[in-house]
Design brief:
The structure is a homodimer of 155-residue chains.
Chain A (H helix, E strand, L loop, with lengths): L6 H15 L4 E2 L3 E2 L5 E12 L4 E8 L1 H12 L8 H24 L5 E2 L3 E12 L5 E7 L5 E7 L3
Antiparallel strand pairs in A: 1-7, 2-7, 3-4, 3-5, 3-6, 4-8, 7-8
Protein name (chains A, B): Chemotaxis protein CheX
Pfam families (chains A, B): CheX
Organism (chains A, B): Pseudoalteromonas rubra
């Protein structure tokens, strides 16, 4: 796996957030994760399984950014991370991974997606336990930060 | 999916912890999760994808229990949840799911496993975003509590 495999997830995320929530994130520089830890207040995680590979994807949001996305989608800002917010994060996780799956499928990398899991809790950290390299990509916005992380075995 | 699908995960977990860490957990009553929230300080999560179904599994530990398991495996108790502990939780997640996969495979339910993800952060909560029912099973021990949760679409 190399840094290029992050790009389908990056473009899928930008597309999903622009379409669903008129939200633009500024992507930072993708990094091979060593000691860096992806940190957030609410995260969506999903497993991926294919004939050539398996792996995992996560997206973590600061609380403020998650609430802003929710506000733009529904017109009302929740007070805190509630079930509607975790549903929305699960849905974003599915849509971003589904978009990346289509883009990677065109390049001959096929995988199926498991069902998403959403974690909430202030400042939790996420570690992908995969033999392959973990690629992390930070995003900034006026409303808070987000991170995506992708890890595949054997790519 | 019905409550019986939790049993392969239950017996696999009991087996893994007894073998790896001479640790016995007392299983509570499995419940179809409605409002209950699985809560823990360190959790392992994994996606599952098969021809008939897809889903997700998680196991959450109180910090004290995770550190005790680590101590029994390595002879030394870490001060806090560090990378060795998250590696151990990822490994337990793999082993428990692998054991359950074998047991469910004997019944004709086949799936492949994605790679595990470990979340750490005091008192985080986990929500499986799956159309099917979510089954949660609590465990108690002298050293702290654990929860497993399993969710499959279309079983």
């Amino acid at each position: 796996m190399n840094v290029e495999f992050i790009n389908p997830f990056l473009s899928s995320l930008m597309n999903v957030l622009a379409t669903m929530a008129q939200t633009e994130l500024t992507p930072g520089k993708p990094k091979i994760k060593k000691d860096e830890v992806a940190c957030g207040d609410v995260s969506g995680l999903i497993g991926m399984v294919g004939p050539q590979t398996k792996g995992s994807f996560s997206i973590s949001f600061d609380e403020g950014l998650a609430l802003t996305i929710m506000e733009r989608m529904l017109g009302e800002r929740p007070d805190k991370i509630n079930e509607e917010v975790t549903d929305m994060v699960g849905e974003i996780t599915n849509m971003v991974t589904g978009g990346a799956k289509n883009l990677l499928g065109e390049k001959g990398y096929e995988f199926d997606m498991a069902t998403p899991i959403v974690v909430s809790g202030p400042g939790h950290t996420i570690t992908h336990k995969c033999d392959g390299p973990k690629i992390i990509m930070p995003f900034t916005s006026a409303d808070g930060n987000a991170n995506i992380e992708v890890s595949f075995d054997k790519l």
